[in-house]
Write a structure and sequence with these properties.
Length: about 160
């Protein structure tokens, strides 16, 4: 297995993996996520592949087929004037094909992202995880991530169908 920047020929597999993630989220939060959709379109992915501020890394098997990905975003912090300035690498999405889970591919992807963050002069790697996605929470805790802040919500009413 190798980890590399995503390429145009990875787009169909990335879309399939995005669907796997969406189905997990739709099961947790059917009030927010629409089953059968994906976070990005193939056109959006094609454009993202050219954007060095939003690198996509893929884990590729021995036949160079994508079996996992990490969508990242370089961010300049902070969002206010009362904080120290620093750069972070935000993991927007990380997924390993369900048929390959448990083979330490996610760990290798995360380690690669950490190496890239160091190379890019980042202070931290950060991400969000949806409440209820306990498998992801356990994985990230195992990788050494700690809660930095929490986002809370108060739902006013159900959206109309």
């Amino acid at each position: 297995m190798q980890i590399r920047r995503a390429e145009e020929n990875d787009i169909p597999k990335i879309l399939a993996l995005l669907n796997q993630v969406l189905e997990i989220h739709a099961a947790i939060r059917p009030d927010i996520f629409i089953p059968g959709t994906t976070k990005y379109t193939d056109k959006m992915l094609y454009d993202m592949l050219k954007d060095d501020q939003k690198p996509i890394y893929v884990a590729a098997d021995d036949s160079d087929s994508c079996i996992g990905y990490a969508f990242c975003q370089l961010r300049e912090q902070p969002f206010s004037t009362n904080m120290v300035q620093f750069r972070s690498l935000f993991i927007d999405d990380l997924c390993v094909d369900q048929s390959c889970r448990g083979c330490h591919i996610g760990e290798q992807l995360f380690d690669y992202v950490k190496q890239e963050a160091r190379r890019l002069g980042c202070y931290e790697v950060n991400l969000n995880v949806w409440a209820g996605n306990t498998a992801a929470e356990r994985f990230y805790e195992k990788m050494g991530l700690k809660t930095k802040e929490r986002q809370l919500e108060y739902i006013l009413e159900k959206p109309e169908s």
